[in-house]
Design brief:
The chain has about 475 residues and is mainly alpha-helical. It contains 15 helices and no strands.
């Protein structure tokens, strides 16, 4: 049997040979993406290898999904698959369709300026067709990870989530080691930048995003241990200790990365996870006291974090960057300037006061940059993505409270990445794009699973869901 129903939804740990092979393959691809894909600008041999590995894995995952159990008629995965298909189609079409269909005041002005110098205007929808086609290939590993995660049984999905946490811890350990090593050290994968708790990433803000994801997943495990605690079960105590340690490491390391948004997202994500898990173990005075205590700690931590955060010069520039991105995008509406055209077009259109020694690589707002690059098709993709998220949340809320833990947690962690994308660009890195794809696959698969319980037991087996 294939799909999430291939093992018992009550937490079976046995995997058939094909599921084990699928788990190994998707884990290998995820590790390769995270270790080699920490930059939004550079793509070396590791990223290229991940793209090649993604091609057969996409076919394999598609075969598994087509031969899945009848639970696949559930609409939640199909909303995600439609979103993923549109996301891949946009850059491909931009690289091949003619410029005549794009229109826009900015494109006409650019063609007139080039004509004065005898230069032919761009002939494709995208002003940078090669970069647009390359962007489509960059999506392949994430699409493969999503599809394979969607096809795996529940026990394998839990192990994939644990790998995400392990990768975050490994990146943090590497970041600590980088602080004591020379800039040109082999420990720094991007020696052109000074090491600053970067880990696998070129930008420490993206290290912070991965730490938030890991802390969110660890918080869910800790909530389950607390909710289902019984005397005489030391292995569960060990699970709780490890989860608490991961959360503590993330909380200590996040301020050192310089990401203020990461600190706030950590607090909000953990609070949401605790609140989401509480229905599965409520009923006693102890559970209500734990919930109140957790919410109080979250409120105090959020207050202190907001007081601690200070606006730095670079962040004062992010507002004007986003505003100017919107102005340029309006000139190239309704079809956008093309994925991969942001850097040269921004340099051309930006006023002199925003031109700096270092070029502006991204808008620091993923949604504004998508509007810039792909116009109305990007808006359609974002709407479809929102529908997929809402459909997944609806499907998870229909699950029994003690069975939806992993799905809800993955959705909260994915929401943290999407929220960080309002002020940064984590999804522009192959590493975080792969992690987001894994989380989306886990959430969609859990939402599509057929509930096996009609009520929530008074004392559920909390460890079954994650």
């Amino acid at each position: 049997m294939h799909g999430a129903d291939a093992d018992t939804h009550h937490g079976g740990h046995s995997l058939d040979l094909q599921s084990r092979a699928g788990l190994v393959a998707v884990c290998a691809l995820l590790v390769l993406c995270v270790v080699s894909g920490g930059s939004s600008q550079e793509s070396g041999a590791g990223v290229f290898a991940a793209q090649l590995l993604a091609l057969p894995m996409l076919g394999w995952a598609g075969w598994r999904l087509l031969h899945a159990t009848p639970r696949a008629v559930n609409p939640h995965p199909y909303a995600w698959l439609a979103f993923a298909g549109l996301l891949f189609a946009i850059p491909v079409l931009q690289s091949v369709l003619p410029a005549g269909m794009a229109g826009g005041e900015g494109r006409a002005a650019l063609a007139a300026d080039l004509g004065r110098f005898g230069v032919e205007a761009p002939s494709r929808w995208s002003l940078a067709p090669a970069a647009s086609l390359a962007a489509a290939f960059h999506l392949l590993p994430a699409l493969a990870i999503f599809a394979m995660a969607l096809s795996l049984p529940a026990a394998a999905q839990r192990r994939l989530a644990q790998l995400v946490v392990a990768l975050a811890v490994a990146s943090l350990v590497l970041g600590v080691a980088q602080l004591g090593a020379p800039q040109e050290s082999a420990l720094n994968p991007y020696p052109q930048w000074s090491a600053a708790m970067n880990g696998f990433f070129a930008n420490p803000n993206h290290q912070a995003t991965l730490l938030v994801v890991a802390a969110t997943l660890a918080c869910a495990r800790l909530a389950m241990v607390v909710g289902a605690w019984r005397p005489g079960r030391p292995h569960r105590v060990a699970h709780g200790v490890v989860a608490a340690l991961v959360m503590l490491l993330a909380a200590v390391a996040l301020p050192l990365t310089g990401s203020r948004a990461g600190v706030v997202l950590l607090i909000l994500s953990c609070a949401l996870v605790v609140a989401a898990h509480w229905p599965a173990w409520r009923g006693g005075v102890r559970s209500r006291m734990v919930l109140v205590a957790c919410m109080a700690v979250a409120a105090i931590a959020l207050f202190l974090a907001l007081r601690w955060m200070q606006v730095e010069a670079i962040d004062e520039l992010r507002g004007p960057l986003r505003a100017l991105t919107g102005e340029i995008a309006a000139r190239y509406a309704p079809m956008g300037a093309g994925i991969g055209s942001y850097v040269p077009l921004f340099e051309q259109e930006a006023p002199r006061e925003l031109l700096m020694a270092n070029y502006v690589n991204h808008a620091h707002n993923e949604y504004a940059q998508w509007w810039f690059a792909a116009g109305m098709p990007a808006v359609l993709a974002m709407v479809l993505g929102a529908v997929a998220l809402a459909s997944t949340l609806h499907g998870l809320l229909r699950q029994p409270a003690n069975l939806r833990g992993l799905g809800v947690t993955a959705l909260v962690a994915l929401g943290a990445i999407l929220a960080h994308s309002l002020v940064d660009y984590p999804l522009r890195t192959p590493a975080m794009l792969a992690v987001a794809a894994a989380l989306a696959g886990l959430a969609a698969a859990q939402a599509a699973s057929t509930p096996r319980l009609t009520h929530v037991p008074d004392r559920p087996n909390m460890m079954a869901s994650y």
